[in-house]
């Protein structure tokens, strides 16, 4: 069976991060809150922690760190509460963190949003709420409401067996929410730690991803010569990739295309 580490390395960590864009803090904890640091209630956050642990398990179920070790539930909660911070926890600054020799962590200072960006992110997080200025493309149910409703539908999830949890997440009225959680958990598991997940860089270390290397950068040789093969061996073949995808992406349906490899 393909492990999560082999799957991430097989598709390429860079490719994964290109597909799964970082959502929104080791550094966020330094921000000045306008209100609370969390959106979810304690019980909701506990359920979310168990859901993310089921979707991205760590020890003892998986030898590599998982969602709990990376702090995925807490990072998602902070994203939902992004506008209770000033500036909002949406875009970490730059140009450099302090992970590669910079004298200060510029990414620890989140940047203010302009009016258009704030409107877009408020629609995404809070929804349109029937407001004319937010409903120009139709009504939108924001992530805050999606999480509140989705977690409410998972009563008893934490106490259920693993098989029962899987069945609950695959239920027709829950699978859409489970897919949202899975996507957001991947964002913060393998994204930059400034957004609250990837604690102690566990997501990067497990996959061999070097992370941001500026201002040190890469030598001329490293950008002109192929990297040596990873310890996991050759990239996954098509059959192994399909098997891994069906295991890690909940509810996915993969269809063979004639002539594809």
How many DSSP-defined strands? 2
Q: Specify the number of helices.
A: 12
Provide the succession of SSEs: HHEHHHEHHHHHHH
Radius of gyration using CA atoms only? 19 Å
Tally of individual domains: 1
What sort of overall outline do the alpha carbons produce when their principal axes are compared? globular
Question: Quick check: average pLDDT?
Answer: 82
Give a description of the structure.
This protein has 261 residues and is mainly alpha-helical. The chain has one domain. The chain contains 12 helices and 2 strands, in the order ααβαααβααααααα. It has a two-stranded antiparallel ribbon. α1 (4-11) crosses α2 (13-19), α1 packs across α12 and α3 crosses α9 (175-190). It is globular, with a radius of gyration of 19 Å.
Blueprint of the fold:
Elements: H1 4-11, H2 13-19, E1 32-33, H3 42-55, H4 67-70, H5 72-80, E2 85-86, H6 115-126, H7 143-152, H8 162-169, H9 175-190, H10 202-207, H11 220-224, H12 238-248
Antiparallel strand pairs: 1-2
List keywords for this structure.
261 residues; mainly alpha; two-stranded antiparallel ribbon; globular
């Amino acid at each position: 069976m393909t492990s999560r580490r082999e799957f991430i390395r097989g598709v390429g960590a860079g490719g994964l991060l290109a597909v799964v864009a970082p959502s929104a803090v080791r550094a966020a904890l330094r921000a000045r809150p306008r209100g609370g640091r969390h959106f979810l209630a304690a019980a909701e956050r506990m359920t979310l922690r168990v859901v993310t642990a089921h979707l991205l398990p760590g020890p003892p179920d998986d030898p590599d760190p998982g969602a709990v070790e990376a702090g995925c539930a807490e990072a998602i909660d902070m994203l939902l509460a992004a506008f209770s911070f000033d500036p909002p926890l949406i875009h970490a600054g730059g140009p450099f963190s302090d992970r590669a020799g910079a004298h200060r962590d510029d990414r620890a200072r989140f940047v203010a949003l302009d009016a258009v960006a704030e409107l877009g992110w408020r629609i995404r997080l809070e929804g349109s709420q029937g407001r004319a200025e937010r409903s120009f493309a139709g009504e939108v149910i924001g992530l805050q409401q999606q999480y509140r409703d989705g977690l409410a539908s998972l009563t008893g999830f934490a106490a259920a067996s693993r098989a029962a949890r899987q069945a609950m997440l695959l239920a027709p009225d829950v699978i859409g929410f489970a897919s949202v959680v899975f996507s957001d958990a991947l964002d913060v598991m393998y994204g930059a730690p400034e957004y609250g997940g990837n604690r102690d860089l566990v997501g990067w270390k497990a996959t061999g991803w070097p992370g941001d290397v500026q201002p040190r950068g890469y030598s001329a040789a490293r950008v002109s010569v192929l990297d040596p093969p990873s310890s996991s061996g050759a990239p996954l073949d098509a059959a192994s990739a399909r098997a891994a995808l069906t295991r890690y992406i909940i509810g996915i349906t993969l269809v063979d295309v004639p002539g594809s490899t």
